[in-house]
Amino acid sequence: MTIYLPPLDDNKPEHFPPISSALDDPDGLLAIGGDLSPRRLASAYHQGIFPWFGVDEPILWWSPSERAVIHPTRFSPQKSLRKFVRKNGYRVSINHRFDDVIQHCALIRGEDMVWITPEMRSAYKALHRQGSAHSVEVWQGDELVGGLYGVSVGAMFCGESMFSLKPNASKTALWFFCEHFRRHGGLWVDCQMMTEHLASMGAQAISRDAFLTELEALKKVKLDESVYTPQCLGVQDD
After folding, report:
1. pLDDT tens, position by position, 32-53
2. Total structural domains in the chain?
3. How many Å apart are CA 41 and CA 53, to the nearest integer?
4. What is the CATH number of the domain that holds 169?
5. Tens of pLDDT along 152-163?
């Protein structure tokens, strides 16, 4: 079966096809080509679109029919995780080591299974320098043992990837970030596509239409800039 995808115009970085034209199979595939400039990336996230492609593949853009999201106001870690973090002395920071976090996320599955390509890493590093992409780091002593990164869109945080080098490190990153994000007025964490790991951490699946409706409202909310200031994160143990 031949699939036709509209190629993106290099001269119109904000322009994407209508979300309604996304394919059913493969689910959510919307467009091909273009570039990964900060301007195009920011525009994509503001429209509910994200890039996902492998090494030696063209840039592919997606908006799946079902979206995995976490509501920070409802996120509650299991007692076992709280106890584990206290026992193992993990501490968490935000925007201290973005480049290292994305590098670990890229290689966590091994050298032969990299989907966060060098091109993507460079693009998100540029977006980080512009203040739109952010990292959360988990430390055990002076060792970086886990973390996550993503893109801020108003009161929504669009998570891209996470990694763990020690038990429960990515769960700790998400827990601390959700608490921090909630305290600063953040309302949704977009996890893109549902997995068993995300479901175990409280992610819920919603329709694309419901996601886009919320995105339209949340992207207009301006959070205090201190939410992404490099800092150590505390946790409210409610």
Report:
1. 999 999 999 999 999 999 999 8
2. 1
3. 14
4. 3.40.630.70
5. 999 999 999 999
In a domain, residue 86? The reply is yes
CA distance 47 to 64: 12
Strand boundaries in the chain, DSSP class E: 29-32, 50-51, 60-62, 66-70, 90-94, 133-140, 143-153, 156-164, 188-192, 204-207, 231-232
Residues 97-121, buried b or exposed e (16+ Cβ, 10 A)? bbeebbebbbebeeeeebebbeebb
35 within a domain of the structure (yes/no): no
On whether residue 133 sits in a domain, the answer given is: yes
Cα–Cα distance for residue pair 86/105, rounded to 1 Å:
25
pTM above 0.90, yes or no: yes
219 is in which domain, residue-wise?
Answer: 69-232
Mean pLDDT calculated for residue range 103-127: 82
